[in-house]
Design a protein that fits this description.
TIM Barrel, 35% helix, alpha/beta, disordered C terminus
C-alpha cells in the first residue's frame, strides 16, 4: 500500500480509491491507515436492512469504506441490474453518506443530495 500511496497524485482535486472485494475491506482498511488512499466497496444493496444473501447492506459497507461502486458493467451484465435499480442504490447511498459513489464505469458523480 505504501507504493500506491507514494505513486498517488499530489493534486488535492484527485483522490485515489481502492475497491477490494468485501471480504478484504477490513484488512485493506488497516493497511491504508495513515495513507491518503481512500477505501471503497464494490457494491451495496439498496435496502437498509434484511437478508439478501451475498449482498452487502450500505451500513456494513460504510463501516469501513468511504466510497462505493454502483452500476458497474459486470453487475449490469451478469445480474441484469437496471438503471432504476441502480438509482435506488444511489438514492440509498446519498441519504446515508456525503461521499461520492461511482455510478458507472463511464462516469463518476458525487451522490451528495442537493
Amino acid at each position: 500500500m505504501k507504493d500506491i500511496d507514494a505513486a498517488s497524485p499530489k493534486d488535492q482535486n484527485v483522490e485515489v480509491v481502492i475497491c477490494p472485494p468485501f471480504t478484504a475491506l477490513e484488512s485493506v482498511a488497516r493497511a491504508l491507515e495513515g495513507s491518503a488512499v481512500k477505501l471503497g466497496a464494490q457494491n451495496m444493496h439498496p435496502e437498509p436492512s434484511g437478508a439478501y444473501t451475498g449482498e452487502i447492506l450500505g451500513h456494513a459497507a460504510r463501516a469501513v469504506a468511504s466510497y462505493v461502486i454502483l452500476g458497474h458493467s459486470e453487475r449490469r451484465m451478469y445480474f441484469k441490474e437496471t438503471d432504476a435499480f441502480i438509482t435506488r442504490k444511489s438514492s440509498r447511498h446519498s441519504r446515508a453518506s456525503s461521499s461520492p459513489s461511482c455510478a458507472s464505469v463511464r462516469r463518476c458523480r458525487n451522490a451528495k443530495p442537493g
